[in-house]
Amino acid sequence: MREALNQGLIDFLKASPTPFHATASLAARLEAAGYVRLDEREAWHTEPGGRYYVTRNDSSLIAVQLGRRAPLDGGLRLVGAHTDSPCLRVKPQPELVRNGFWQLGVEVYGGALLAPWFDRDLSLAGRVTFSRDGQLDSRLIDFRAPIAVIPSLAIHLNREANKGWAINPQTELPPLLAQLPVDASRDFRSLLAEQLEREHGLRAERVLDFELSFYDTQAAAVVGLEQDFIAGARLDNLLSCYAGLSALLAAGEEENCALVCTDHEEVGSCSACGADGPFLEQTLRRLLGDGEAFVRTLQRSLLVSADNAHGVHPNYADRHDGNHGPQLNAGPVIKINNNQRYASNSETAGFFRHLCQQQGVPVQSFVTRSDLGCGSTIGPITSSQLGVRTVDIGLPTFAMHSIRELAGSHDLAHLVKVLGAFYQSAELV
After folding, report:
1. Where does Zn(2+) bind (predicted)?
2. Average pLDDT rounded to a whole number, residues 177-203
């Protein structure tokens, strides 16, 4: 099971270079399992026992299994994650020609570690909006091939490089795409139109706009002398999306279960399709109805907010509280912060810890050092939006927000097992 899950994650990461592609990958797997797509613009006709999913902005997805047990009796079992990761996004008018090289201007999305982006084989993917036969259309594209690189400056020209230096994203991050003849120029939108024709067989009259991200073409892999680790891009937080999907597809038919994978977590979640927007509440109200029954159902429900945690890096162990240092391959981590950066409380954390113990899954705790700031997740946002009880958890990782992150190769199976038990748990907190 462990090897199959790890390979499934690797395949999922390869198919999901952007939130748009991640959502499409999730949708394809749900449809293959019999889930029916709902359109937000149309009337919904659902029934007990039905399995449905809905997307918004092509980058967020909610999947719901309506169980045989009435939601008002047993509540909802929700698992939340996010589809976005820090990256380099292409600017609207990105063309740069400098010293005979064609480059693209980029904007940093989220809190990215910038140094690892240098000297990588980069490709480009995302959503393109265009006109065709007088009509608007949008498609996802993925160049797949390594079409760009951000070369480092040689040590001879920057003797202070190994002492650390501030990277200027405006001047130092534009990737190189090609070397051009003297006085030549290239049109980026023409390049996108060519890719639309190659990938979809569509002739775009005019490329109107785009949302495109560079990504590392090196595939994720199980690595290490004893194959202890999974290395790959976008583990934060596609690892949790994949774990939640795997658990949902294996869930029984009795309970009401939901998987919520939203965009824009890395930039605050404040969008129409983010956790700080109305997407989840509007979806649940359409499925469960308004009024007192809706509130009563939520008060019988529980959200497991799954987002990666900081494992203890052996070279930087002093960056952790000595009593709260999560280890890779030692199970999921309950994340706690008394200033409400995480939404766990004693009851929800106790429930999750008890569930892990019942399943024979190791479980850990994380509290950040008292003299360091603490990150946050969709947990507090969703909890405050809906009033649903929440526990924040995640798998320990290294190099969070790097172009290539590292997790334990045993931990995915641990997380899928406990989330599967959560989806089938007859009693919540």
Report:
1. 82, 156, 401
2. 93
